[in-house]
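DM from R.C. (forwarded with permission)

"hey, sorry to bug you on a friday — could you get me a structure for this? deadline for the figure draft is monday and I only need the backbone to look sensible"
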Amino acid sequence: MLFAVGEALPTALGDEVLGDVDAAGKVLKAWEDEGEQSSQRLLHIIVWRCRDRDFCAGYRDRLQRTMLHIQSFYRNEMWRHGLGKRSFNLDMQSNGELVIHEVVGANDWKHYKKSDGERIKKECDPVLRKKGIRINQETVMIFTNLAEWNPEKKTFLHKSPYYARGDWRGGVAWQVDSEELDVTNLVKEVPVITDGEYGRISLGKHNSIFIGGIAHELGHALGLPHCRGDEDEICDGTALMGSGNRTYADEVRNEGSGTFLSRAHALRLASHPQFSNSIKNFGDTGQARFDGLTVVLGEDQKSFQVQGRIRGKPPVYGLVCYLDPDGRGDYDASASTASPDQQGRFSIGCNSLEAGKAASMKLVACHVNGAVTRIQFPYAVAKNGFADVAVMECLFELEEFSKVLAEQGVEAARQFVPQDKRISRYATSVLHGRAQNRKTVQPGRVVKTVVSLFLSRAKPKHAAVGWLIPSYDNLPRQNPWLESAGKLFETGIYAHAPSKYHYVLDGAWQRLRGECGLPSQRTGSVVFVISSDGREVFRSSVVNPGTTESYDIDLTGVNEIILATEDAGDGKTGDWGMWLGPELSR
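My reply, with the result:
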C-alpha cells in the first residue's frame, strides 16, 4: 500500500532513515495484503453560518482550492519521507467539485464565541445525519463565518473556534472562513493589512497563517500532537505541527523556508485509514507491551538511547519518541523514529536535549491499523547539557510491578517488587498506600522518642480532593508514581484541586518540610496553601508541571494544620496536585 511498483525512494534521506522506512513499509504491506479491506475514508467539509449572516462570499471555489492545496502539501511531504504519494481523501463529486455541507446556526452572531466549538458541532450533527454521515465517527472540518473582514480598511478580526482533536477513527477541526482567505493570495506581499492578533502583515502572510492553520488543525484531527521535528529537519523550515501553521508557503514570497511535515508524523500517518485506504481492524484499540526497557547514556552524556522489545496487537510497524521539555506545552518537542526488527527489538536515539530543564520522553508505538499506544517517562538535563536519566532508569525497573499492580492488584504486585533496595522502596511505599488496612498514626499522639514522621503516614481528621479519592504515597491511577519535575518521591499526598487535608498535631511537632508540584506533563496549574491554627503560613505561586516549590513551616505550639490546594483560577481540569515528601519533625 505504501509504494507503487517501480517507485524509487527519495535519495535525500539518510541510510538509517531509509532502513526504518523500508522496514515499516514491509510490515504495513504484509498486514494490508493479508485479507485486505480497502475502503476510502473521507474528510467531510462543513460551512456553518450564524442565523443573521450569510455564508462567506465565494466559499465553494475558495475552499476547494484551499483543501486541494493542503492535500497536495501532505502528499508531497509523505513522498519526500519515502512513504508513498499518500494524503487524506476529500469527498469529491463526479464532476470534480468538492462536496461542502451547509449548516445554519440557531442563533445570531452576538451569541457565539471562540469556545463554542461543541455547540456549533451539535448544530451540524442533524444536517449530516440526514445525509447518512455520523459526525462523531468521521473526520470533519467545520468552517465558520465568525470573522470580520473589512476590504476597504484592510482589517481582520475573528471569534471562530480554532482548534481540533481526533485519532485514527475520526476527529473534528474548527476553522475560520473569510472571503480574503484564498491560496491565490499566498504570493501577495501587498496590500498590508491589520490583523487583530498578528498586527500589520502582508495579505500573503495573513493567508499563510490561516491556511497553514487549516493544515495544522487538520493534523490534530488526524491524531497528531504538536512537535517541532528532529534536529536534522529544522533546516527544512518549520514543522507543521510545531509553529509551521504560521510559515505555510512563506517560500513563495521569499520570506523563509516555509513549512514541512516532520518525519515522525509522516510515519504515524502512513497507517491512518485516510492515508492507507485500509480499514482492516479499524475499530480495534492498539495494545502494545514494552519489555526489557533500558536507557544508555551517550559518551558525551548529552544524549541517550532507549532500547527494548515491543509486542503489539495489531502489529507495531514504527516507533516515535517525543522529547518534550517542560514549558511551552509540546510545541518545542523534538522527535525521533525507529522501526522494530522481526523480534520486536528496537533502539531509538534521543539527542535533541534542552539544557537546564526537566523533560518527558513519550514513546509512541504505531499500530498497522492506525491506532497508537503511548508510554511516558521523565528525565532532566543539567545546565551544562548533561542528561540525568536516573528516574527513568528507576521507572523502567518498576514497569513490571506497575503492570501487575494495575492488572492484578496489590497482593499479586508484592511478588514483583524489584530486588534492588534503592528502587524497591518506591514499590513498597505504593503498596503501603494502596493497602486495604493502611496503618496510620494520630500525629498528636506519637511518642516523643520518634523525632520525625512522614505526613502521609499520619491520620487526617478530614480529607477531600477534587477528583477521585484521597490517596497517600501513590496516585490513584494506573501510573502510581509520585514524580514531578524529573524527581521521584517515596512519600507524598495526592491533592487534586480543590483539596483539603486537616491534621490534629496537639503541639507535638516543631517543623513541616517538603515540596509540592504536579506530575510531569500534566496540563494543570495549582496553588498550594498551608494554614496553622487558622492562620495562613504558606502560599505557593501558581505551580505548573515542570517545577516544584519547597516549604519549611514552623509548627511550634501549633495544634492543627490544613494543607489545601486551589485551582489557580482556571478550573480544576488536570490539577493533579501533590504534597511531595512532607515530613514532620521535632
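R.C.: lifesaver. Confidence is low (pLDDT under 50) at residues 1-9.
me: no worries. DSSP finds ten helices and 32 strands in the chain.
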